[in-house]
Amino acid sequence: MTLIAIFFPFLSFILRGRIFTGIICLLLQITLIGWIPAAIWAVISLQNDRAESRNDKLIKALKNK
Questions:
Q1: In this model, does residue 54 exceed pLDDT 90?
Q2: Mapping DSSP to helix (H, G, I), strand (E, B) and coil, where does residue 16 land?
Q3: This prediction's pTM
Q4: 9-to-26, 32, 54, 56 alpha-carbon distances in Å
Q5: How far apart are CA 4 and CA 34, in angstroms?
Q6: What is the enclosing helix (H) or strand (E) of 15?
Q7: What 8-state DSSP symbol labels residue 18?
Q8: Confidence class of residue 55 from pLDDT cuts 50, 70 and 90?
Q9: CA 53 to chain CA mean position, Å
Q10: What value does the mean pLDDT take over residues 41-57?
Q11: What distance in Å separates the CA atoms of residue 20 and residue 32, rounded to the nearest whole number?
Q12: What CA–CA distance (Å, rounded) separates 41 from 62?
């Protein structure tokens, strides 16, 4: 998924269900200068989603104890 976020940043957002954000990212990605910020944005967003998922699992595990 990280490679998709680097090479196709807009697709990374769309695959995670963020259609509107994907469209905005695509508009940024269309320009050659905007490709790098779009890729960075997509990778950081992906990492944040993964961290949030881990945190949710930890919270559930702690509540079940």
A1: yes
A2: coil
A3: 0.83
A4: 7, 13, 22, 25
A5: 16
A6: helix 9-15
A7: -
A8: very high
A9: 13
A10: 94
A11: 21
A12: 31
